[in-house]
Design brief:
Largest sheet: 3 strands, antiparallel
Strand order of the largest sheet: 1-2-3
Helix content: 25-40%
Radius of gyration: 14 Å
Number of domains: 1
Order of helices and strands: EEEHHH
Shape: globular
Structural class: alpha+beta
Number of strands: 3
Number of helices: 3
Distance between the termini: 16 Å
Length: 94
């Protein structure tokens, strides 16, 4: 899951559980932090579109799977799908 604020990519996390661990919604999840730059100037954080390779046009506070976005399918569908996307993230986020 990519976490963004003001169109900047702030964290990449892997969801570890199958469902929320308590009532209250999707945000009660166990995750593993995959990418984060804690001592980075806000202006130096990457723009989500540059890193993701597409603009997800997300709405505030609503989680989405990347594969539901037509823009994701347009960009990554013929290039190897999620595996190619993961490789792209690893290359660009290091």
């Amino acid at each position: 899951m990519a976490l963004t604020q003001r169109a900047k990519l702030t964290h990449i996390v892997e969801i570890l559980d199958e469902r929320p661990y308590e009532k209250g919604g999707w945000f009660h999840r166990y995750v593993k932090l995959t990418w984060w730059k804690p001592k980075t100037n806000w202006d130096d954080l990457p723009h989500r579109e540059k890193v993701l390779g597409f603009d997800p046009h997300i709405q505030k506070g609503i989680p989405y799977e990347f594969t539901v976005f037509q823009a994701f399918q347009d960009m990554w569908g013929n290039q190897g799908g999620m595996e190619a996307f993961r490789s792209h993230l690893a290359e660009h986020l290091g």
